[in-house]
Amino acid sequence: MEQRIGSSSKPVEGAGFDPAFIPGLTAPAAKSDQEQEPQAAAPEPAEEPEPEPKAQAAEAPAEPEEPEEEEQAPADGPVFEASDRRAKFAADHRGIRLSLDEEKCEFRWDEIAAVETESPRFGKRFTITVHTPDRRWFPIEIEATARARFKEWEDQLDAVLDAYFEEA
């Protein structure tokens, strides 16, 4: 008796796996080994020019210096920052920055449609949600040391929003 290794069923073909498949008009595209070899050989010449990446590497240090200068620029208006052990929220003249663990995102003031705050009835997690014009929202929860901080944070955030955020 013969034993085969692997599945004995044929691979499923059709519109569920190939959106270009139209029954009766087209057959699934099958590539032979001969067709795949020239494609595999084609990318190799594109990888050979190595002097360009070295030139780009020499230019790369100039790019990070510009954001550092931007960060060192003094902020004339109000600044709001709130953070806990995992999350951080910052709003200043450049926009809003959210970070949670290793993930970070930044929004310039022209990229923001609304900023919403929510303080829970019970508990110490203050929620700030940034809404974008394309109907996306990015919430972040910050754990306060005391519930009394909620009023302080809302007042500071309102001052920043009044100074920088302009509704269209």
What attributes characterize this protein structure?
single chain; 168 residues; 5 helices; 24% strand
Can you describe what's shown?
There is one protein chain. This protein is an alpha+beta fold and 168 residues long. Helix content is 30%, strand content 24%. It is built from five helices and seven strands. It has helices at residues 33-41, 43-47, 51-59, 62-72, 149-164, and strands at 80-83, 87-92, 95-100, 103-107, 114-118, 125-131, 137-143. It has a four-stranded antiparallel beta sheet with strand order 1-2-3-4. It is elongated and about 75 Å long. The protein starts with 32 loop residues before the first helix and ends with a helix.
Number of strands: 7
Give the proportion of residues in helices.
25-40%
Give the strand order of the largest sheet, numbering strands 1, 2, ... along the chain.
Answer: 1-2-3-4
Query: Globular, elongated, flat, extended or rod-shaped: what is the shape?
Result: elongated
The radius of gyration computed from the alpha-carbon positions, rounded to a whole number of angstroms, is 27 Å
Strand content: 15-25%
List the uncertain runs: 35-49, 53-58, 62-70
Largest sheet features = 4 strands, antiparallel
Mean pLDDT over the residues: 75
Number of contiguous helices: 5
